[in-house]
Amino acid sequence: MDNKEIRVIELFAGVGGFRIGLEGYNGKSASSNFNKKMSSNYNVIWSNQFEPLTPNNQYASIVYEAKFGKEGHSNQDIEKVIETNFDSIPNHDLLVGGFPCQDYSVATTLKNSKGLIGKKGVLWWSIYSIIKKKEKDKPKFLFLENVDRLLVSPSLQRGRDFAVILSCLYEQGYAVEWRIINAADYSMPQRRKRIYIIAYHQSSSIYKKIISCTPKDWILNKGVLGKAFPVLKNELDSNRGCISNDPKIVSDEFNKGKKVSPFFNSGLFLNGEFTTFKTKPEIRPLYPLKKILQNINDVSYDFYISPELKLKKELEKKQIDSETIYIKNELDMWKYLKGKKKEERINKINGFKYKYAEGSMTFPDDLDKPSRTIITGEGGKSPSRFKHVIQQESVYRRLTPIELERLNMFPDNHTKFEGITDSKRAFFMGNALVVGVIEKIGLELFKQINNG
User: Fold this and answer.
1) Fewer CB within 10 Å, N- or C-terminus of the chain?
2) Phi, psi of 360 (to 5 degrees)
3) pLDDT tens profile 285-344
4) Is the peptide bond before 364 cis (omega within 30 degrees of 0)?
5) Distance from first CA to last CA of the chain, Å, rounded?
6) Contacts of 330 (CB under 8 A, 6+ apart)
7) Residues catalogued as catalytic
8) Could you give the CA distance from residue 173 to residue 176 in angstroms, rounded to a whole number?
């Protein structure tokens, strides 16, 4: 595979973040704001995007096809593809995907010949099914993304979910490295912390490099993640442990009764043993929120928060820390939701009274720091504690779809398409990943593949 095209399939593709990070967009790189050329040997030959919660409204898939074309793209439930049309999934070198964090517990099927299934966490089991059924031509590499709590879930058996994933990959002949990366630590515009997982099949040249060095040396110096996103080389807290290649045993027994996960933010898993470290990033200059903002003259009034706009319901009165405040308009409501609270509330169902307290959030958002994490509920006009609000010149306003795209390092208007609302575009970005992280990891992975 050296110096040849790397065939990629992209699962749970959303609006194509992995694809843009690996291939570039129109031949240009996200890290240059799509101004500089990017030479890439990655080629996404097949993709799948299906939203099971809205089976009749496949908006993300519509955007994906609009940007990348329909050829090689599937908008069918991936489980159905695997069960009824598996041959449509081409052989590939690299499988990528950002799969949701769910429950990865394991149950045996009624017929032993079918092996293991997940009780929940269906999308992980789709990945597992693909690599297992590609018996004679498994992908040499997997590149996955998830929320960082994967390392500590579930609450009653800390670390079990991640251990099940490692066990499945071990069973199928892979070594695995992982790292939690906050994009803002490396000069990217959003404080978005995610776990990135790379698996190397035992038939790959990189696997052979891993077994020739110590886990610490791989994690800190020689590994794909350590080279793409350098960490400090000082003394580190570490931990070691073993994981069976039987996912059912791991699901039932791993870390049972323990309140702390054995996994730290960086690690390597090889031949049933994991080594994990608490690494700290080599912080790069921060990328402030103000650098991604559109000119105020280009922003629709729909995004303005008006101190003159009266609330539709009657004047609201709130008792906070013995102080009575009056919410007269839209801006007051935003300030109230973002502010510190200690108040009595009443459960609308049973009338039970309880004390409610929460701390204050920065209002408006600090333009001189990287953005807070985008959430799926970022869109829409209704006031919210968690949506971004900025003050630009004398105007308080929400972020626009273009600005949300820029925070994830997508091209401007990537999600703009007829029939796709601004709220839906914001939802896409709340679900998306930071493309610049994928690009840097992809470039280093390609380099190591070709230096094997």
Assistant:
1) C
2) -85, 155
3) 999 999 999 999 999 999 999 888 777 666 788 888 878 888 889 999 999 999 999 988
4) yes
5) 10
6) 305, 306, 307, 309, 311, 383
7) 101
8) 10
Handedness of CA 219, 222, 227, 230 (dihedral sign): positive
Quote the CA–CA distance of 191 and 202 in Å, as a whole number. Answer: 35
**Cα 258 to Cα 40: distance, rounded to the nearest angstrom:** 45
Please name the residues in contact with 352: beta carbons below 8 A apart, sequence gap of 6 or more. Answer: 346
Cα–Cα distances (Å) from 69 to 16, 41, 47, 93, in that order, read: 12, 19, 11, 21
Q: Is the dihedral of CA 148, 154, 160, 165 positive or negative?
A: negative
* Residue located via tokens 């843009």: 20
| Contact predicate 329/311, CB 8 Å | yes
> Residue 102's pLDDT is what?
58
The structure tokens 């280009």 sit at 298
Question: What is the sign of the dihedral through the CA atoms of 308, 364, 436 and 104?
Answer: negative
Side-chain-side CA neighbours of 243 within 13 Å: the count stands at 33
Structural domains of the chain ordered from first start: 6-285+433-450 (3.40.50.150), 289-408 (no CATH)
Residue 302: Cβ within 10 Å count: 10
**Would the pLDDT of 423 be above 90?**
yes
Could you write out the DSSP letters of every residue in 314-377? Answer: SPEEEEETTEEEEE-BHHHHHHHHHS-EEEEEE-TTT--EEEEEE----SSPPTTSPBPPP-GG
d(CA 265, CA 276): 7
Nearest residue to 317 via CA among 299, 332, 295, 301: 332
Distance CA 68, CA 13 (A): 12
